[in-house]
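@channel sequence for tomorrow's demo:
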Amino acid sequence: MASVSWSQSINEVLQQIQDQIDVFDGLVTTLRQWVDTIDPLTYKSEAWTEEMKKAYEEYKTQEKVLGKKKNAIKDLLPSSQAPEESLNKAWLAVDWAKAALAATEGRLNFVQSYKNAFQDIDSINGHIQAGEDCLKSAKIAFEKGEKQLKDLWRRWLKDRSAY
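structure tokens (generated this afternoon):
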């Protein structure tokens, strides 16, 4: 996944986030199609390697970061709508979306890389669903970032037309 640089404009960053969301939507579809091909009678789980354990710990850490980033913007949403605050909220939404995408990537790549790490098909589906939930969080964050940016532009245009 391409990293998002903070030196870019917020519009460029939001576009990159949307592009990454689209990629992960495709990966969810691919993984669900793969699960549909698994014979539950022949699926065998493997013992976890150190690499699997490390990947597991990494995506769990990413999910904790996601929770913190999501809460950071929630604390600000009901407050005033000064232009600086809208821009700050837009960047906080970007930060939340980036964290959600990192958690999505960790979860979905785990399934893709370690297809026999699960007890059964229900476990695989649960893992894919958890990745999809992280992706939904990224989509919500993206929408909130776009909304803050649009609100900022709308207020700026309104203020300019008053002169």
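heads up for whoever presents: Residues 50-155 form one domain.
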